[in-house]
Design a protein that fits this description.
The structure is a homodimer.
Chain A lengths: L1 H8 L9 H9 L5 E2 H8 L11 H13 L3 E5 L9 E5 L1 H30 L4
Antiparallel strand pairs in A: 1-3, 2-3
The first copy, chain A, binds a DNA duplex through α4.
Chain lengths: 123, 123
DNA sequence: AAGGACTATATGCATAAGGAATATAGCATC
DNA sequence: GATGCTATATTCCTTATGCATATAGTCCTT
């Protein structure tokens, strides 16, 4: 019984499409960052450290670089392993603006659905 | 320039994952429905008639039936082509309850992101 | 009644997002 | 120099979804 429900709502497929990408654009808007370090900052947006997939993060950053939303450089000196430091491009900043509009639409759709659900008056 | 931004935010990939599925569960919660007819009702949730992909709709309904979230029967009599009439199962109703919780989380994440974006004070 | 328009459902092909596992490599510390 | 940690990268796979196309019955018009 419970297992069936778990089956329905299980897994990791509750991410909003490209939401990670938008979070990254926002985090990099006014300060640079690197892959591993960004993970901690993503907690702010509700990503738990184990929920967030490291490979997804790196793949996303590289993809965003290809699309000229961010650029990267290897860190000069510094302790520990080398870090690839990312920063947002102008193009990325414009893209963020547009994504915010899209997210507002998403939000209002969710609100509509929830309020209609509440109207059902389920016991 | 504008084209590049369009490139970033173009296409149809701004759907929330499995959002359609949840809308269908809600629409079928207290009254039955069939594929084509559900399209009109989905407008309520922000799906424009051309935005909504018909094949996606039918495929989604069939998938939900496989997962025992809905059941279907061919309509008896009635004018026009035969319709496959869907209704929600108990399992589907429980699933909806769970999805609502997930959507509340999604919503709060979006809100957090938007408010942080507003804090940037972009001209 | 033949043709065309419309309703309704279904399927094959392709792409994109993202998870799991694994690989590589430098640095730290003992 | 062996072990463990930090950091980045890649391969394989599944899922969600769009586009195009197929099928078939009904209705309307001439």
């Amino acid at each position: 019984m419970i297992e069936e429900h778990a089956l329905f709502c299980n897994g990791k497929h509750h991410k909003m499409e490209r939401f990670l990408e938008v979070c990254l654009l926002l985090l990099l808007y006014d300060e640079v960052g690197y892959g591993y370090g960004l993970i901690e900052k993503l907690v702010f947006f509700g990503f738990s450290e184990d929920e967030l997939n490291v490979s997804t993060l790196y793949r996303t950053l590289r993809k965003m670089e290809k699309e000229d939303l961010v650029t990267s450089n290897w860190e000069e000196g510094g302790p520990g392993p080398r870090r690839r430091i990312y920063e947002t491009t102008e193009n990325g900043k414009n893209g963020l603006n547009q994504w915010i509009q899209i997210l507002k639409v998403r939000k209002s759709r969710i609100e509509k659905l929830i309020s209609r659900y509440d109207d059902l008056n389920i016991v």
